[in-house]
Description:
By secondary structure, the chain is mostly helical. It has helices at residues 2-15, 19-38, 42-53, 57-74, 77-87, 93-110, 112-129, 135-144, 156-161, 185-208, 234-239, 242-261, 268-283, 286-299, 301-320, 322-332, 339-353, 357-374, 379-392, 402-408, 412-439.
Amino acid sequence: MNIVNRGFVRLFERYMPDPLILAAVLTFAVFIAGMILKGVSPVGMTEAWYGGFFKLHAFAMQMILVLVGGYALARSPAFGWLVDQVAKLATTPGRAIILVTGFTLVACWINWGVGLVAGAVLARELARNVRGVDYRLLIAAAYSSFIAWHGGLSGSATLLMATEGNFLQEAAGGLIPVSETIFSSLNLSLSILVGLTLILTFYLLSRSITEPVGIPQSALPEKTDSVEEDDGLPATRMENSRLLGILTGLLGLAAITVYFLQAGGLDLNAVIFILIFVGMILHGSLAAYLRALKEGVSGATGVVIQFPFYAGIMGMMASSGMSVDLVRYFSEIATAATLPFLTFLSAGLLNILVPSGGGQWAIQGPIAIDAARALGANPAPTIVAFAWGDAWTNLIQPFWALPALAIAGLRAKDIMGFCALALFTTGAMIGVILLVAGAM
């Protein structure tokens, strides 16, 4: 295990570029592939890239709000207290790894924005308090736990298919409620068994490290006051007013309660709304909440610039027909029993080029749903399989690691070797579960 571990870590440290560099390289790779494989002219590929570059602005804003809202929630005093209590339970490197992986899996299942941030914050605290634990491995465990997100409560495809008026509602024969996707026995089994596999993987990795790397001084957070110094001005008192902040938060919770009572489902907008207003309540004053938001925005800069790049890649993949060819190939060789497994594989491959759950579902969803209906299969397991395939290869796609890396003060190459090993173990578990479920 130690030899394999060192080999993967050195491989990624040597050859893994910065995520923005990777996005640029993938852009050129898809550009050239479209000309060679599909015969599209350079002008045509340029037009497709430009056209796609600006197509996901609304969705990008939703993703940023989830990230920033989750970050602000994770930086609240109440959440900080929870992290401190969890951190006290770790007394050995192995226990620290188990705690950070288990905690982040649950947090990401509840909400990916909260999970990404909370996991990195917890990993950083454990690295400060536990002697002999490898900081890189802790952050890798926290980020790898992101695999649980698309099968959880904030999954893009699952929530979208349960949202009235979604673009696949007619093709799917109506709405597909979360009771058939997120809360299905298949998805819950995947969530539990993949989570246990991930915990075991990182525990074994922690046992194989003989020279652990500690936390760098630059990664230690600065303490900030929750309330600004009162200079006696009415404006400052209003900014620091806990009454105003809590009332605003309660108004938001009242609004979302009314929404749910009127048969509103748990969609992406509802998740964002809850994150924002619960965060306000936990911070107390709006000024404290605003400071946490500012920190979160600075951590989202990589997402802001890279999202359009990947939208451009999506545009080229869709316009040239390469993405459709990839998904259609897997769908055409599938049977009703193997469709979920092959959907998982195709989603994993496509996610490397299109690391956006919602954006990827826009490409793959129509073909996957049509294939399920043509084979007489229930589309819900196919949606679940897509969700896990999309989340699976995020373990070697550093796009979504940017917030965690910003908190940790590390580079993508520092953690990707560990994540690649987890990719193999979790992928094997997901594949076995989907094949067994399809055969039943």
